[in-house]
Amino acid sequence: MKNKILLVEDDENLGVVTKDFLEMAGYSITLTADGKQGLETFKTEKFDAIILDIMLPHIDGFTMAERIRKANTDVPIIFLTARAMKEDRIKGFKIGGDDYITKPFSTEELKLRVDAILRRVKSEPQQSQTTTFKIGPYTFNYDEHEISSKKLGKKHLTKREAEVLRMLFNYKNKILKRETALNEIWGENDYFMGRSMDVYITKLRKLLKTEPGVSITNIHNIGFKLEVEE
Predict the structure, then answer these.
(1) For 163, which DSSP code?
(2) 218 has which bridge partners?
(3) How far apart are CA 71 and CA 86, in angstroms?
């Protein structure tokens, strides 16, 4: 069965060319031309990945991604944009984007990035064995993307936050190197992926401050350590 991708691009020529190329590569593509139409389509169909332009009519790509993430924390999102500002890329990752490609781009590069993301998504269920973890006074349910404790209550995590926390737990009281986490979770180690991971670490650190005996420590120029009092 072909993987279904929602492509939201208001440049008609670029949208058609990208759609045709990805369909020749074996994907099933649904093309919409604005954020409002894209959201309506997302709500009525199931997609394996979403490719979003940022500068869209009616609803911009960042807003659309935020609304998608509220409904679905798992579906991969790739941003396409003519804006190369560092702040935009970091914002895209912070919202929950999986990749970010700046125009003009190679359709072959886009295909390879889509291939890589979908391979990672498909491999994740086989990697997940134990799905509920005790982290000191916290209970972390990886499958449900939730962490809870008496003081914290129950908090929902994004897919990426859950992946980062699970990897930190696997290295509990040991150093998790930055490059190890980036290569395992994002599939590559670069500046923007690193900044994205820092955003998730910061949020997790705040959540884990509500109970004593658990903390995430930065190990300068090396990585992080989830410290749990036994």
Answers:
(1) H
(2) 224
(3) 27
pTM of the model: 0.60
Tokens found for residue 14: 């670029």
Classify residue 122 as exposed, middle or buried by CB count within 10 Å of its CB (0-12, 13-18, 19+): exposed
CB contact set of 112 (below 8 Å; sequence gap of 6+)? none
Place of tokens 């944009």: 81
Using an 8 Å Cβ cutoff, are 154 and 203 in contact?
no
Give 115-123's long-range contacts (Cβ < 8 A, gap of 24+).
116/187, 117/49, 117/76, 117/78, 117/187, 118/3, 118/48, 118/49, 118/76, 120/187, 121/48, 121/74, 121/76
Q: What are phi and psi of 227, to 5 degrees?
A: -100, 120
Residue 104: cis peptide before it, omega within 30 degrees of 0: yes
Structure tokens at 206: 């705040």
Largest CA distance in the chain: 59
Show the tokens assigned to 5.
Answer: 């991708």
CA distance 118 to 2: 12
Residue-level pLDDT, tens digit, the chain, 230 residues: 789 999 999 999 999 999 999 999 999 999 999 999 999 999 999 999 999 999 899 999 999 999 998 888 789 999 988 766 677 777 888 888 888 888 888 888 899 889 988 887 776 544 445 588 899 999 999 988 999 999 999 999 988 899 899 999 989 999 999 988 888 887 777 777 788 888 889 999 999 999 999 999 999 889 999 999 87
Q: Which tokens belong to 138?
A: 């916290």
